[in-house]
Amino acid sequence: MTDWFARPVLHVADVEASLRFYVERLGFTSPWRFDKDGKGCVAEVDRQGCALILADTQLFSGHRSGAFEPGKMARG
User: Fold this and answer.
1) What is the tens place of the pLDDT at every residue in 33-59?
2) Please, is 37 exposed, middle or buried when counting C-beta atoms within 10 Å of its C-beta (0-12, 13-18, 19+)?
3) Does domain 9-60 have CATH number 1.10.600.10?
4) What is the pLDDT of residue 52?
5) Domain ranges of the chain
6) What's the chain's average pLDDT?
7) What's the distance, CA 70 to chain centroid?
8) Is 61 exposed, middle or buried (0-12, 13-18, 19+ CB in 10 A)?
């Protein structure tokens, strides 16, 4: 059975700077990230079972639900 857990989403102004802080200063690792046009948009950091999502605030601007605007996410 898969273990499910929630990850809080932190809306940040600069994903790159936030990643550096969590990884270099607080000892987190970053198992994945999503970049667009060479700029970090969304990334996960984790440490000892604590996982956080760092998301660029510009991806959420204008959306009351807090959901990603479909046109701003890459199609995979």
Assistant:
1) 999 888 899 999 999 999 999 999 887
2) exposed
3) no
4) 97
5) 9-60
6) 83
7) 16
8) exposed
